[in-house]
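Before the break, one more example. Copy the sequence into your notebook; we will annotate it together after we see the structure.
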Amino acid sequence: MSSSSEEPGGHKGGGIEGKKEAKEKNKKNKKNKKNKKNKNKGKDGGQKEAQTLQMGTVLQRTFIEKARLGDINAMKALAAKGADVNGSVEPVGFTALMAAAMMNHVETVRFLGEKLGANVNQADPVGYTALIVAAGGGYVEIVQLLGEKLGANVDQVDQGGSTALMIAAMNGHVKVVRLLGEKLGANVNQVDQVGYTALMTAAENGHAKVVRFLGEKLGANVDQVDRQGSTALILAAIWGHVDVVRLLGENLGANVNQAMQDGRTALIIAARRGHAEVVRLLGEKLGANVNQFDKEGATALILAAEIGHVEIVRLLGEKLGANVNQASRKGWTALMLAAQHGHLKVVKLLVRRLGASVNQCDNQGLSALLYASASKQTEVVKYLARHGADLSQGESLGHSAASLALRSHDLPPADPELAAYLEAKAQCANPGCKRGGLKKCSRCQRARYCGTECQKIHWKAAHKKECVRPSSKDVGAASVVEDN
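Here is what the structure looks like once it is written out:
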């Protein structure tokens, strides 16, 4: 029957399931709405928290800014609203107390310390406290207030180990140095991470008044050394501070010959850096040892010649009596280094005025001429050749001046013109003969002779023992052959 397909029971049963589904769906919707509401609530809470944090940051930033401006009334109002007296704002990390100290607002510092109880020893990310900031600015009243009234730690250090005394000395604030040292009991010989004291920082920066006060009044150790062995005197010499060098040497009794770990003294360093007046003072007035050498054996004269400081070479050689032919551990003299680097004026001074040995050789058998030839210093080579340089020097070692002038490996480009000049100027190997030697010994290809007669004389006298063919051990008299 057609009616069986529309059975009431079937229709009734479908209705119950539908109600259940609707109920479940309604329940699920309510749950989703609740979750969404909670989610929105959480989101709103996060936004409110962020807004609160932002408001707090703005409040704190404003508080610090008012401290920087010295606006105490505004700070009172902001503190009442919850501004943190010790709070800071990135990236600078300054507190209100530091900001007030930096701008020399004495009453603001007093208000923050005495009324609001600011932490006087709080430091910023690099370790600066309000006291260090005030000392660096030279603010005597604030330093006194922080140290005497508010109990600041006078020897607290920043990340580099510097104290307020060191910072004040570095900037030349003698009144702050006096206050910190005499009134507040700062440790005058405290060192930072590299071993610097307040005296060293003052000397390095040329603050003579601070150096005098630290040495004479506060008893600073004048010969204390840093990690490299530098003293206050050496640091002053490095930077050419004549007045400080004089004060340390004459008044404070600094050891003028004390050396760093590398063996360099104040005189050696001043000479190398070109500080002529410091060199004069150290040598003439303070009695520095002019021939003292560093760990490499280099003297003040050698280093001054290497750099090309003509006046200092003149001063050391003529006025202070430096040994012009003193050699380093490798045998290098002032003339060799001046020649190698092409300092013609220094070369002329050393040879003509100071009597430098033109043919002195180093540990490898190389002379000033050979160094100049290898470096292609044409004018120096010509000058040395005119003033007694032995052009055959080095031939027994396989590197004559001419051959070095033609070399280019790890050296300046070959200079055929210079080599030709040297070949033409080569002298006869026979002692006493001053004629040009344009012919080589056919056997060793090193010794040069003006002719057969000189070769025979020299063969019997000396050359027979030293003449060796590069690729043969044959013996017997060699003959002269002309150069190609």
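The radius of gyration is 42 Å. Confidence is low (pLDDT under 50) at residues 1-20, 48-53, 471-484. Try to locate both features in your own notes.
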